[in-house]
Write a structure and sequence with these properties.
The protein contains four helices and four strands. It is an alpha+beta fold. It has one domain. The strands form two sheets. Strands 1-4 form a two-stranded parallel ribbon. Strands 2-3 form a two-stranded antiparallel sheet. The radius of gyration is 14 Å and the shape is globular. The two termini are 23 Å apart.
């Protein structure tokens, strides 16, 4: 799969972050389990991160790379968002 679904909110509660982080292990099906999607690529972003993306002019290629890295990360949920998403957007060499 070469695309991500992004959930955007003004404020991300810890349980919301945890839920979306764990989408990578979900199995989603429709049509009575005839078509199963495994490992949903849905990641949360706060509006402040969207602002950073826009202000820094972060393009699709670099953003996709960041999202893919966050998706594959084994960082524990309590620190995952800050270290793998928000923190990496602040790196100046994106």
């Amino acid at each position: 799969m070469n695309a991500y679904c992004v959930f955007v909110s003004m404020f991300l509660l810890r349980n919301v972050i945890s839920d979306f982080h764990n989408h990578r292990t979900y199995q989603y099906s429709r049509d009575h389990y005839e078509n199963v999607v495994v490992r949903l690529k849905t990641l949360p972003l706060a509006t402040s991160e969207i602002q950073t993306i826009l202000e820094c002019g972060i393009g699709y290629g670099k953003l996709y790379s960041l999202l893919e890295s966050a998706y594959r990360s084994s960082e524990p949920v309590p620190t995952w968002y800050e270290r793998e998403v928000a923190g990496k957007l602040l790196v100046t060499d994106l």
